[in-house]
Fold each of these.
Amino acid sequence: MLDLRFVKEHVELVKENVRNRFMEVDVEGVVALYDRRNDLKARVDELRARRNEHARLMKSASPDERPARVEEGRRLKEEIARLEEELAAVEEELRREALRIPNLSHPEAPVGKEEKDNLEIRRWGKVPSFDFEPRDHLELGRLLDIVDFDRAAKVSGAKFYYLKNEGALLELALVRYALDVLREKGFDLFTTPDLARESIVEGIGFQPRGAESNIYTVEETDLCLVGTAEITLGGMYADEIIPGETLPLRFAGVSHCFRKEAGAAGQYSKGLYRVHQFTKVEMFVYCRPEESEGIHRELLAIEEEIHAGLGIPYRVVDTCTGDLGAPAYRKFDLEAWMPGREGWGEITSTSNCTDYQARRLGVRFKEAEGGKPRFVHMLNGTALAVPRVIIAILENFQERDGSVRIPEALVPYTGFNVIRPKAGG
């Protein structure tokens, strides 16, 4: 969340940011709750001080004074209890409403509502030109016998899939390739839990429950299936103070990701592009506030290095305010060329969330030489999302006969350099 004193002192700025993000938040209502909370807290503190003074005077009260002192003590106790109950209710309402206020937006983030409003920064690689009619990844997956959607739908429902044969090996190769790049960059490597507490999910900025939630929850527990390792990596230091000399912390996590994808339909969501479960390698960084913009550029450069290393043509876009998501201050996306859609499709994003998530989770740092603890800045970036990269590989590196060339960087991990059609495929 944003610092509430900042919100109170910059109401118009915060309201303009909410409008630019096309969200609906009662900012002035939050400020009113903040003022009410502070007033109640001051009154409770004053009454507690009077109770303490009253207890001191009781010790020296004469028999004649004692009945009145007892009555005064009872009245103070009841008044404090009443105000504490009111304060607790106001604090909970304030917390709930304040969590709805999005992070501020970077001054250079393009103002807009939809993907078409994103700003293209640059392109890399050559979009392939075929002398035959190219197939999309669904047709190639069947022809090569590496993906099975039909049996997965029978077992788990729509938008699930089996990777099989060379497809299964391709997933493992992509994960290991990304991890090796990140290890060379100094990242600590993790495999992460697939479940996280609702408090952590909410702290990162996701909505665990409700009609708009994209998160699966486990009934009769406070656990959720994670939609990204950003949740589990970002929750590791909740309510902790990190020694300043250890910053920045660079983590890379491999996880399964689970997303409801409610309402995700249309030709661009078909096949592997938008699914309920997939494997992803995620980057996450805790750093000092003054480091975060530079590290954000580093994460983008790593994403570009990983995908350029695979030879996948892509473009970089600066994400518009309406498509940032509440926690992000600024976000860059990589979009790969996907011949099956004759257009670009998102394959990674990297976000600088400044101290927005840190405030919600209570993650601070303190320098060795002293001073007050400060909130860290937290950043995330997709190193590699397996299904979408498989789409890009299949569709960009296909041959006339339906075979697919494996990027040279992956061959040491796969043990093969081409996937050929299977008989009867």
Amino acid sequence: MTTNKPTFEDNMQRLEQIVQELQNGNVPLEKALSEFQTGVKLSQAMQQTLQNAEDTLTKMMTPDGEEVSFTRDKGYEKQAKNEKQDDEDVPF
């Protein structure tokens, strides 16, 4: 038996429903607590999904097919800082 794991979007929709229900305030206390706990779990699962996506996107493959962390050139931070300073000089 296969279980379909909810997608990030499914979790987001469910979390939005919970938030809306709790904001309306017409929920018995016990149900509100249960829904709040469900919302926290959904939020944690979604945060983990986003972290996994970020970890994946910050890696690259070597010519040998090995996955390595992506690092910027050492001069990048200096260049970015200089560009930011140039932007700050613009009066608008």
Amino acid sequence: MSDDPQSPSSTEDVPSAPGWVEQSVEEIFSTLRQGPNTNKLRNAYLDCLASTRSPEDIDAAHDRCRQSLIKALREQEKVGGQALAALELKLEALEAAISERV
């Protein structure tokens, strides 16, 4: 076995959202019609939130995460109008709660 420090391991730390964030996102998405890519898009949103590290730009990063998700849901899952508006309000509230805890 090599002691090569550049080899990744199965215990390598990767960014992840706190459990309460994951649970909140799960609850928010449970109200949305599920399409073929919905889970993938939800996971990408969570990954985006988790990769936001700097408190100085957390709000701008969250905006980018949310806007990318909304665009993907509109284009890939054909979610529209009121459903997207309601989802966006819920996500904004979640992101505000995250910012308060940082």
Amino acid sequence: MTHREILEALSGLLLGLFVAVLSSTIVSNALPTILRDLHGGESAYTWVITAALLSLTASTPIWGKLSDLVSKKLLMQVALVIYIVSSTLAGLSQNTSELIGCRVLQGIGAGGVVALGQICLAAMVPPRERGRYSGYFGAVFALATIGGPLIGGVIVDTPWLGWRWCFYVGIPFSLVAIVVLQRTLHLPVVRRKARIDYLGALLIAGAVSLLMIWVTLAGKNYPWASWQTAAMVGGGLLLAALFVLTECRAAEPIIPLTLFRHRTVSLAAAASALVGIGMYGATTFLSQYFQLAREKTPTMAGIMTLPMILGLAASSAAAGRLITKHGKWKRYLVAGTFLLALGFLLLGTARADTPYGLLSLYMLATGVGLGLTSQNLVLAVQNTVPVKELGTASSAVTFFRTMGGAMGVSALGALLGTKVTHYLTQNLAAAHLPAAGGAPGGGELPDLHRLPAPLVPLVTDAFGHGIGTVFLVAAPFALLAFLLVLGIREVPLRTRESG
């Protein structure tokens, strides 16, 4: 394909990516309002995010395998149709259970769009030139991450719209993306009988789901050391072991274990899982921080996270161009994971009264780290594996990133609920107020404007301290990603695709 043809096709892929990312970021600032309307608590907050991530995780390898067998353009359009249907149903939800179910469907569609976007790019452009185009993906990711919270906040703050339009607003973009792809994306179609490893997808989804449910409920519905813990953890590990056995015997496994014979693939997959915790955790918990610890509106919460998102956009675009120019990529992975760990460590010191100037620097470091890391881990793997495994390998990296994000957000959300309760109890005791004296109860997210005035600073302090603790706990995972990236061997980028 010529440069012009690539850009024309890329416009449809990027529009689809914008929609997929928007589906998760647009609800981040709107969720406190949505869950107050639907009477959901901290666990529901976590599950509205992680339900989409979980289905995205389970479906990504299936989309990747299908892309090696049938038309990539058709698959991308099918994924967008799934997104349109699920978004419509999500906007009609009457309770948190319905909303979470619709988010599962949204995750399936978004998983196809995210995975297939990278796969289509890899089919059009050789690795040496891919850095420049990957920078466009990073920039659109940042744009959707910037626009999502802002759009969601404006929608929630506009009385004649309401939060349901957070799900409807992406539908027109999806329809345009389908039309653009139909007219511009022309890739060779491999025609052979597809043998999809549905059992493998079911087992890995079951394993991750069981462990996420355990993390969400343990310590609240039952003790950490209990028979429920033993049953769920044991069941999750058993399903994971069965998944490995299934992949060893499947004719066309969902994640071929032979991929991990490549040292780069193994290290990049593990690093991607750890980076996923930072990618999804940062947007999820910063939204709560600004609304519940600093009493900002959903719109202002989106605006105040701009330093992180601008850092992500600028670093992703700059790294893409530099990689294309010089052919070196490892240095950006090393710098990115280091900055991500540093940013989380600094955010771990945040409290309700931390000056915004300092927070901006902390968020900027985190954003630059994410921008240098997320796309380039995919590039490193694509440059390592044979062309025939390009789709499967690309989706495997995305799989581990979203799995890490789903598990991380679930675990950190459970930790946040526990810490907020602990710090609020301490604050009430220090103020000589009864624990039930108008304080938030039942696990529901508080509406700060309806609380008695003496309670508001106690609640905001509890959320500020709790969310700071969450970032502090996440920092070692980013540091581990840094150590893993150091072990990746840099291979010069291919200037053409070869078997």
